[in-house]
Amino acid sequence: MTVRVAIVGGGPVGLATAIGARLAGLSPVIFEARSGPIDKACGEGLMPGAMAALRRLGVEPAGSPIRGIRYQDARRAVEHRYGPGVEGRGVRRLVLHAALLDRAAELGVPRRAVRVDGFTSDASGVVVAGERFDALVGADGLHSRVRAAAGLDRASAADAEDRALGADGRRFGLRQHFAVAPWSDLVEVTYLDDVELYVTPVDEGTVGVAVLGRRPLVLADAIARVPALAERLEGAAPASEPRAAGALRQRSRVRTAGRVALVGDASGYVDALTGEGLRVGLAQSEQLVAALAAGALPAYERAWSRSTRDFRMLTAGLLAAATSPARGLIVPAAAAMPRVFGAVVDRLAR
């Protein structure tokens, strides 16, 4: 008997889960009230591991090559390039979403234009918008309604790590594109005193610039504080409207409850500091599909922890440093230990 899976949320990770489920012989249905490709404020740099995961789904979005990462501050810089034949890709969010939508449609994945605010469940299944399913996947983002309805929210105030950040410790993101040819095949991360700037090449005539930090965030002000970047962008026409996201840090108690599972940002999000949120979401998606196909949904919790461990540890460490007096030491430490910096970049790239 075919396993029916309701996937609430038609963003990239929700679509990847639906595509993976279909390829595994399951019967997924996507619930997403919004139509067409959906934009979101994100860095848009797909690391090599993310590209490999997309190819396993039969998805190959157009974009600009990314061959490494560069960290810099006002006085120094350190960069690491991937090895021969290893390459990521800068891809505009709308382009990525469109490619995933096309692949899901090619595979015949049904889509319901319905906003899901709740559901009912029992020992035999889950009812969503009047339809019965064997399982429900919450892939509805940072502020997941499925997570809340399932009672899986974890209040950040209850977490000692979050209390250490203080009441004003929440971080947000802001991103905009500019019509200028990329000058580098690296993702450039600039550490200022209070924010980080990310520059990502996304096609042959466009770069994306994102700023992360505490509110208020003004992208133009942050760019102006980096003279080399301001010079490169001088006269460049905006290629998109500014788009914000946050608060970035979201927590969940566990990732499964009965026949409900969370994936992607809905399952918990630390911060965007490492730029690998989508790679982690795709890894979670693969683990979740495997658990559903095996009829062993509870096993997903352990698989989720295993597949996100490195990312969570590295990001939590960076976040702790970035929100402490040690912030100014991040780039100097990376420059002083290029082999360690390179090992971290390569690990995240996989």
Written account of the structure:
With 350 residues, the protein is an alpha+beta fold. It has a domain at 4-54 and 90-162 and 248-349: FAD/NAD(P)-binding domain (3-Layer(bba) Sandwich). The protein has helices at 12-23, 48-56, 93-106, 145-149, 160-165, 219-224, 227-233, 277-293, 299-322, 330-336, 338-349, and strands at 4-8, 27-31, 45-46, 64-66, 68-72, 77-81, 88-90, 111-112, 120-122, 125-128, 131-133, 135-138, 172-179, 187-191, 195-203, 206-213, 237-238, 243-246, 256-257, 260-262.
What labels would you give this structure?
globular, alpha+beta, 8-stranded mixed β-sheet, 6-stranded mixed β-sheet, FAD/NAD(P)-binding domain, 350 residues
CATH class of the domain at 4-54 and 90-162 and 248-349: Alpha Beta
Number of helices: 11
Spans where pLDDT lies below 50 across 5 or more residues: 156-168
| Cα-based radius of gyration, to the nearest Å | 20 Å
Question: What is the end-to-end distance?
Answer: 36 Å
Strand content: 15-25%
**Mean pLDDT across every amino acid position:** 87
Structural class: alpha+beta
According to CATH, the homologous superfamily of the domain at 4-54 and 90-162 and 248-349 is FAD/NAD(P)-binding domain
What name does the CATH topology of the domain at 4-54 and 90-162 and 248-349 carry?
FAD/NAD(P)-binding domain
What overall geometry do the principal axes of the alpha carbons give?
Answer: globular
| Approximate helicity band | 25-40%
Q: Give a short account of the largest sheet.
A: 8 strands, mixed
**CATH architecture classification of the domain at 4-54 and 90-162 and 248-349:** 3-Layer(bba) Sandwich
Number of strands: 20
